[in-house]
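Lab meeting, item 3. Inverse folding demo.
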């Protein structure tokens, strides 16, 4: 990446005036009742595979204290529970949408009925990824799935995550990306621009939210550019792992 491109990318990610936090929060509040269903339907269930790969990439989470950022309804949190076979130390999860957290808490209540000892180690709270309410060096691992692009100042949010991770701690970031293949890219654009907004609007009743999904995904930086931003935000190394023909990219960063 050229110096000019690097500076432009970082400025764009810091000063995203179109990312009005109140507007984005309100949008996620509105779609929260259908959020999980549409995630499964619109990705044909592949989103579960992406999350599983991301959590596994964090390594052994037995005894680990984990942070789930922009947690939504808690899918990543409960994937940690499954993959660690309940042997994690603690999971702190936060999201700026109070309505998303209502559904996360419902899932937690169901888990508590089956396994209260596991559920008591999970905590959901409303919070801002740019101002994490945790002490320095307090987590072994962190994760965010399809949420980093919704943050107004992305470098600040990345720096906050680096701050709360212990030295050697890992951060898994899942985000949509533009496929490099011309054929796959063309199909991607047709689906995201034409098909997905219509299905999302029909099933959720909110056309704006699913147009936003496409627009925010297409506006996100290329994977090599974003990896550079991650590294410049306090991480010592970043691995880039494209998945499903490049539709999604996993960034695995280490403090």
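The presenter then showed the designed sequence:
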């Amino acid at each position: 990446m050229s110096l000019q491109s690097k500076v432009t990318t970082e400025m764009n990610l810091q000063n995203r005036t179109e990312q009005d936090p109140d507007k984005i929060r309100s949008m996620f509040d509105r779609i929260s009742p259908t959020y999980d269903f549409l995630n499964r339907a619109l990705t044909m269930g592949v989103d579960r595979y992406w999350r599983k790969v991301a959590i596994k990439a964090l390594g052994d989470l037995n005894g680990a204290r984990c942070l789930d950022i922009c947690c939504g309804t808690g899918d990543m949190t409960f994937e940690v529970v499954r993959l660690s076979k309940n042997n994690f130390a603690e999971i702190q999860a936060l999201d700026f949408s109070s309505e998303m957290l209502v559904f996360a808490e419902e899932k937690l209540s169901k888990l508590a009925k089956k396994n209260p000892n596991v559920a008591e180690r999970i905590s959901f709270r409303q919070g801002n990824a740019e101002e994490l309410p945790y002490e320095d060096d307090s987590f072994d691992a962190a994760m965010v799935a399809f949420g980093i692009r919704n943050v107004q100042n992305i470098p600040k949010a990345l720096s906050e995550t680096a701050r709360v991770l212990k030295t050697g701690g890992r951060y898994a970031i899942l985000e949509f990306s533009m496929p490099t293949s011309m054929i796959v890219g063309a199909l991607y654009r047709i689906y995201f621009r034409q098909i997905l907004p219509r299905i999302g609007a029909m099933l959720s009743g909110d056309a704006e939210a699913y147009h936003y999904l496409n627009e925010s995904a297409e506006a996100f930086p290329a994977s090599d550019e974003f990896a550079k931003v991650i590294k410049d935000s306090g991480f010592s190394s970043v691995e880039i792992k494209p998945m499903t023909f490049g539709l999604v990219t996993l960034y695995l960063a280490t403090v």
